[in-house]
């Protein structure tokens, strides 16, 4: 199985990511024209990991996204449901505590993390609201959530050009650099069907998060949502 459908059956999605694990980071770098590095730097600033804090990096893939938090001195748990991604991560970053877990049923106790974050993975979860509730559950009161996800460009002419790139240019580029290019057709479709920035903010609030806000990156290609678990 190299491509999942938009009903996002967990086994199909996990199998798809297993198939792209080896060249996943390289492919993302090429397809985003290097912008993914900037986006991850913005995530690291928003999470603001500190020594002694505990950070959950959900949908961490190979663990590359977890490195800034760990290097800042936080105890960082990279968690993903793709065993192929975790195997590749163990090969590259064997010192990280890579953990297998489903975003809708996280294998952690209540309130154990100071910060939880997920980058480019929430739209691949079958039940978005359940995942947001689980992130809330494992975060301590006063803790924070940071979500980095593809979104919708805010300027209409640019949005048209971007959507053309997703559906026409992305698949041929993926064929040249990815170990499983069909997976990137699904990823393009999942980006187009994902809720816009205000809708994701509403869903965060529904899950219990307060002080919800977002910031657009690259004209809204990506949005960085933040929230806090209320005290008490």
From TrEMBL:
GO terms for biological process: methylation. GO terms for molecular function: demethylmenaquinone methyltransferase activity. It comes from the Bacteria. Its EC number is 2.1.1.163. Pathway: Quinol/quinone metabolism; menaquinone biosynthesis; menaquinol from 1,4-dihydroxy-2-naphthoate: step 2/2. InterPro entries: SAM-dependent_MTases_sf (IPR029063), UbiE/COQ5_MeTrFase (IPR004033), UbiE/COQ5_MeTrFase_CS (IPR023576). S-adenosyl-L-methionine binds at residues 62, 80, 102-103, 119. It catalyses: a 2-demethylmenaquinol + S-adenosyl-L-methionine = a menaquinol + S-adenosyl-L-homocysteine + H(+). PROSITE patterns: SAM_MT_UBIE (PS51608), UBIE_1 (PS01183), UBIE_2 (PS01184). Keywords: Menaquinone biosynthesis, Methyltransferase, S-adenosyl-L-methionine, Transferase. Pfam families: Ubie_methyltran. The keyword Cytoplasm does not apply. Methyltransferase required for the conversion of demethylmenaquinol (DMKH2) to menaquinol (MKH2). Belongs to the class I-like SAM-binding methyltransferase superfamily. MenG/UbiE family. NCBIfam families: MenG_MenH_UbiE, PRK00216.1-2. This is Demethylmenaquinone methyltransferase.
């Amino acid at each position: 199985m190299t491509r999942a459908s938009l009903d996002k059956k967990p086994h199909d999605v996990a199998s798809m990511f297993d198939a792209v694990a080896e060249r996943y980071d390289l492919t993302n770098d090429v397809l985003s024209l290097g912008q993914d590095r900037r986006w991850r730097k913005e995530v690291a600033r928003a999470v603001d990991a500190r020594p002694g804090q505990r950070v959950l990096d959900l949908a961490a893939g190979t663990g590359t996204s977890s490195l800034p938090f760990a290097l800042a001195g936080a105890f960082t748990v990279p968690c993903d449901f793709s065993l192929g991604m975790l195997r590749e991560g163990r090969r590259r970053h064997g010192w990280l505590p890579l953990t297998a877990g489903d975003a809708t049923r996280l294998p952690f106790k209540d309130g154990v993390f100071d910060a939880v974050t997920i980058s480019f993975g929430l739209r691949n979860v079958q039940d978005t609201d359940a995942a947001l509730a689980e992130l809330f559950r494992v975060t301590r009161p006063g803790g924070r959530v940071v979500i980095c996800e593809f979104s919708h460009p805010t300027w209409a002419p640019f949005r048209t050009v971007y959507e053309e790139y997703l559906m026409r240019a992305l698949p041929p580029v993926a064929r040249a650099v990815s170990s499983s290019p069909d997976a990137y057709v699904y990823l393009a479709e999942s980006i187009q069907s994902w809720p816009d920035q205000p809708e994701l903010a509403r869903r965060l609030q529904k899950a219990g998060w307060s002080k919800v806000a977002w910031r657009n990156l690259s004209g809204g290609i990506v949005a960085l949502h933040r929230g806090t678990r209320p005290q008490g």
